[in-house]
Amino acid sequence: xxxxxxxxxxxxxxxxxxLTLLIAIRVVQPNFGASGLESLARAALPFAFATAAMAVVxxxxxxxxxxxxMMAVTGVTAAVLMDNATEGQAVFAVIAVLxxxxxxxxxxxxxxxxxxxxDIVVTLAMLFVWEGVALLILSTPxxxxxxxxxxxxxxxxxxxxLPEAWTFWLPNAFIFMAVAIAVIWLPxxxxxxxxxxxxxGSDDTAAFRSGIAIGRTRVAAYAVAGxxxxxxxxxxxxxxxxxxxxxxxxxxASVAAVVLGGVVLGGGRGGLLGPIIAVFILRAIRLLLTLMxxxxxxxxxxxxxxxxxxxxxxxxxxxxxxxx
Length: 324
Hints:
single chain, mainly alpha, 14 helices, 0% strand
């Protein structure tokens, strides 16, 4: 029991914080219930996928500043391909969007490996490249989304073999997020590629001496991040029914959630569960401030301050670990 608490203490602490925030929200807004949880889950959905993308890259010892722009590209691509499309055509559109995300991530990784330019510089440049691509695909918000795709994240879970009272509080958006991330991350973490991603993030020199192909592993890590970004872009289109070419506020929020979730900025340590819980914590804080009728500008300042402090603490801890 002591070993379990020591290993998962940070994650359990995050869960306790999230539960406390939900209780505080219920105190401030007594009517907060299943519909409120659904709204929270739908708002957190794109942030969760952006955070998952960032976490994979950070675990590999890098960083990707273009996650929001890649989400914009995949979101507008989905909206354009599904506009007036049949149900069957929409399935192929989803597959195409996921492949586009993987390709964009792989391009980012390949540029970093081939040019040997720091990832923060390369991905900063690609941020503007992908932003321009999104505007070329769709200059203004538009397009469409298949009805069956939008229904995936709408409403509470409904299972015929379970009473409605058991699933009424469980949003479809949360299930979609959990299943999508688990299907990708759980097999990956236990695979040879997953172990290699952790190895190059921990010590790329030692990983190279162990026979790990550093370049290919780094490109693969960025490709996985691109896949998560594609899911994030799809979730945006699923939520609004249209494509939005202007990148949303997902970059800084994803970095803050990754650090708050226990992923070390230097790489090699962490997972995705903590960062995903951190996403809900940050969204719950914003919701609580909104329900308390705090000025939206003040809310933005508080949210930004929390993100900056978390990232700064993460950077300080990283430098201390490197010195030791």
